[in-house]
User: Fold this.
Amino acid sequence: MTRVSTAARDGGYTFAYLDEQTKRMVRRAILKAVAIPGYQVPFASREMPLPFGWGTGGIQVTASIIGRDDTLKVIDQGADDTVNAVSIRAFFARTAGVPTTTRTQDATIIQTRHRIPETPLRAGQILVYQVPIPEPLRWLEPREAETRRMHALQEYGVMHVRLYEDIARYGHIATSYDYPVRVNGRYLMRPSPIPKFDNPKMDRSPALQLFGAGREKRIYAVPPHTGVRSLDFDDHPFEVQKWDQACALCGSTASFLDEIVTDNQGGRMFVCSDTDHCETRVRAGHVESAAGGRDPGGP
Amino acid sequence: MACDDRPLLSARGLTRYYGRILGCRDVNFDIWPGEVLGIVGESGSGKTTVLKCISARLEPSAGTVTYDTRTEGPVDIHRISEPARRLLMRTDWGFVHQDPRDGLRMAVSAGANIGERLMAVGARHYGQIRETATNWLGKVEMDTGRMDDLPCTFSGGMQQRLQIARNLVTAPRIVFMDEPTGGLDVSVQARLLDLLRGLVSDLGLAAVVVTHDLAVTRLLSHRLLVMRHGTVVETGLTDQVLDDPQHPYTQLLVSSVLHP
Assistant:
């Protein structure tokens, strides 16, 4: 656990930046979202001190639920040390004075962009997603009034048209991230741009999952132990990505791997995208496996 | 519950105003199972308004449209719940637009266009959806090798065929057609009409065809409704109306046709 700042407040800001009325409004939206799993609840998204698209939705959700005894972890593409993660962590360390951590099991709130941690979440933890586009039907139906009606009437056949199109073109469902899911057998939901590798982790997760879209002004949620099913066809069932090698650092064969180009000669290595998971394994004595390591030739 | 001794669809006192402007007024007719009804008239005579009202795309200002559903018997389509109405539109009805771009999903392949209705009513087996789509491409006389091509790579006639296949895939009982041959050249028109005539008689479909082209109605429709200024001025069997027009406007319409 690393305590970045011990300052309870920073010059005139309320706890966690947002004023109490705003937090109340966001909390109301969150409560409604939890009550109707997968339903997109509109909320009056505020200007935040960073641009839309950088996680303003997630930050507003986090700011509204965080308390003084919470411990915050922020990840971006699975990593704790990228710009977005570092900045948002510093923001809350400064405006809320809460302890922050990079360890998944120590955190009570985890704000994330693009990944769900490999370490299984437990009851009591809250996962906050930053969502760029909340509407799963957006690229299929441009009219907002019509997409709402489609949600109301559960007219989701058109989403299968998209998957059909994938199979017709590529021979398999080529959608690899932001893979559409059905929450609690009712609402079609966009799980934010997480890889479909993470979709099974959402299903019946003991942690509360909150989704905030700042620019699009929507909040939605998956309460703990709620069924989340990825769409598929009977003869083309949902599958997650697989790699034919292990992580070059920790030798894990069960985690989501990033491909990193290491030189101009086509050298590349595959490493865990979840840095905390990888470091924990390395500390525990796992080392790179024979199958991992550098792979100078070809893909 | 649906049976042959009552009309499939009937309109009573159908009236639609667009603000102060009249769309159509007091239109009454019945369509029986397997019957093709033509609606003709000049531009602005209210043909399309009537078609939209009876296909639940537009709410009439007054009057009723009753449809004889398979399970519940006759219902007023503007009074039933929206999910029920939408289900009817996806399964029991077809709508062929004049411009295929209005009726097709231009960004997805021909196969997906045909399969969309199937997936909308719950088909979840890719192989079966594809097989049905292939069958239908064959039935509308299209090359099944174009299955995975986008509709925008098709000619106008092919797009119109695709639109027809897409509508018929769920075996509807009535198809609404708005100028189905508009914008096509005469030889393509003739082939499309041939195809439509074959499909309508093979499948026992009822159809409502709106057109300003009397040749099209002569070929396709059994009965004719002539509209002018939002009202029906003459009805009757197609041949009867076209060969022995009674109303002055119908006489004008029939005599305006060019004979090469």
Observations:
- Chain B touches chain A through 23 residues (CB under 8 Å).
